Amino acid sequence: xxxxxxxxxxxxxxxxxxxxxxxxxxxxxxxxxxxxxxxxxxxxxxxxxxxxxxxxxxxxxxxxxxxxxxxxxxxxxxxxxxxxxxxxxxxxxxxxxxxxxxxxxxxxxxxxxxxxxxxxxxxxxxxxxxxxxxxxxxxxxxxxxxxxxxxxxxxxxxxxxxxxxxxxxxxxxxxxxxxxxxxxxxxxxxxxxxxxxxxxxxxxxxxxxxxxxxxxxxxxxxxxxxxxxxxxxxxxxxxxxxxxxxxxxxxxxxxxxxxxxxxxxxxxxxxxxxxxxxxxxxxxxxxxxxxxxxxxxxxxxxxxxxxxxxxxxxxxxxxxxxxxxxxxxxxxxxxxxxxxxxxxxxxxxxxxxxxxxxxxxxxxxxxxxxxxxxxxxxxxxxxxxxxxxxxxxxxxxxxxxxxxxxxxxxxxxxxxxxxxxxxxxxxxxxxxxxxxxxxxxxxxxxxxxxxxxxxxxxxxxx
Length: 462
Description:
Layout: H1 2-30, E1 36-43, E2 47-51, E3 54-58, E4 66-70, E5 74-79, E6 97-105, E7 107-113, E8 125-129, E9 143-153, E10 158-162, H2 174-179, E11 184-191, E12 196-203, E13 206-212, E14 227-233, H3 236-257, E15 262-269, E16 279-283, E17 289-293, H4 303-306, E18 311-316, E19 331-333, E20 337-341, H5 342-345, H6 353-361, H7 366-388, H8 401-411, H9 420-431, E21 435-437, E22 440-442
Parallel strand pairs: 1-6, 7-11, 12-15, 12-18, 18-20
Antiparallel strand pairs: 1-3, 2-4, 5-6, 7-8, 9-10, 9-11, 13-14, 16-17, 19-20, 21-22
Helix pairs in contact: 3-6, 6-7, 7-9, 8-9
């Protein structure tokens, strides 16, 4: 009987505990408040948010997505805690979050290709946004500004995709402007007064000449007879090089002047051999004679033909392997006429004709660029002399192209008879009157390109 009572008592106790567990303890445990965190999303000005921007998220759960929407002309950069995800979805949350979407204005920098403007803002780069409405207006001698463009073909001097009108007002959609791949803006001008310059390249295909040397030439290892005989026939590969040289010189000059002057470069290959009677010479005190072949000495070239050109450059190969036997440098020039020594200006004996042709047929190859540009420089250098000496006699000129080269030499490591590639850049500045030295502008007066001659065109430089 006692056992029964004890058993019943234990059963009642178990039932009571179970009831307490089920109806009191477990509900209290499971119904306690969950741990939650506040997640706040904000936006700077110039943007907004899409989604639930104020959320309560339980421990270890994730928030719903929020997207940062930039205003027109702006872009989303990042959230204030450094996160760059957009849309943003915060996961496994263990703390409160309060972040702000950051935006910045969309801009693009352009290099201003001002086509040799002679009066312009000092800066050559401009940064534009979706909200800019105008561009600076450059001024150029003898020119009317026609607007800015996104594309330019230097060979044809044609322009595409107009950006602004004549007063600088932007006429293109700013988004289209900024999203275009071009890093440049090109100024387009039209000339008020026509400026053209015609150049003739004369290539000597045959030389049959005997040149008299100084009586003491044997002291320099030139032979005791005092005569050097030259027999030369231009190889076919050299003719191909000359054709390319003519085309490249015209392209180079027109690209340099960007419409300020229109250059036309023609070529003429001689048919008959040139003899010693076709050469001018002068005696230098150092060694030997300096023989130069200029087109006006060549019988088959008429005066009528020459009268159609403002400058004439004659190319000749004298096989002058020894230094300064028949000529002293890569070329020489007088007013209008110049002579280029093929054997000196490119050191022809160290390069085969096929090598040189390779330079010109692959101008974009960095391995060849310096080589063919140096060859072009020899022609530009002598061309510059034929131009400046047409203005007036040297004694009346306030300075010469060589003087300008010496200015540059005093400021840099440049040497007058050194790097011809650097010469090309100085010729560019001199011919365009853009050389600055000690606060003064130097260079050929633009009046020359309008056909004016005489020392008065240098008046502003005196």
